[in-house]
Please model this.
Amino acid sequence: MAGFRSLARQVRDPRCDLALRRYSLRKCLERFAPYGHRATWDHLCSRAGFDPEDRSPDPARLVAALEELEEARSVWLAYEVEFAERRRKEKHDGLRRPGSVDDWHRLTWGGFGVAWCDDPRVHPDGPLAEVLRRLISALEREPGSVCPVCDGERLVWMYDLDHEPSAGPVCTDCGILVPRPVLTPDALAYARRGRLLMLA
Model:
C-alpha cells in the first residue's frame, strides 16, 4: 500500500497517466483528510478550480490541490509531534490520566476528520492549513464559546454523524464538528438547546 509521499509523487509525475494522477490525489485522502474524505475532496476541487467529477482535470490544478493538502498535513504532523512530546513529559511527571483534548486527539490521530464536516458540500472556505492552525490554537488555549475556525456563534448539537464521536456541536456557518474540548460547558449546553429549538 502506497504512502502519502509516494502518492504525492505520482500526482506530480507528468509521465503518469492523468487518470492515475487524479486517482493518486484521491488516495492521498485515505492518509490525510481533515474534513473527512468526501468533504476534503470537495474543498480541494473548489479551491483548485476543477469539478469533483472531472475525470481529466488540468494537471496544474491537481498539483495545486495537492500542495494545499501537503501544507495542511505538515501543520498537522508538527502538532502531532508536539502533542506526543507533551504526553511523554506529562507521563514522566506522573500525569497518567489523559485530559479531554487527549481523548479527542486519539479519535483524530493521523489527521482524519480533525475538522469533520458531515455534509461534504459544507466546509470552511479558507486554506486547509489555516483552518488547522486555528483549530490547533483553540486546542492550546482556554475553551471559548464560538467556532474556532470561523468564529461562528451558531453551534447546533447534531446526532448520527458519520464520524466518532457520532454526536456533537456542529457550526452551521462553516460545517465543522467543533471539538468539545475547545468549547465551554455553557457553549456546549447552548448547542444542545439549539438542537431542541430546531426540533420544536
Residues 196-200 have pLDDT under 50 and may be disordered. Strands lie at 155-158, 168-171. Residues 140 and 182 are 9 Å apart (CA to CA). DSSP finds seven helices and two strands in the chain.
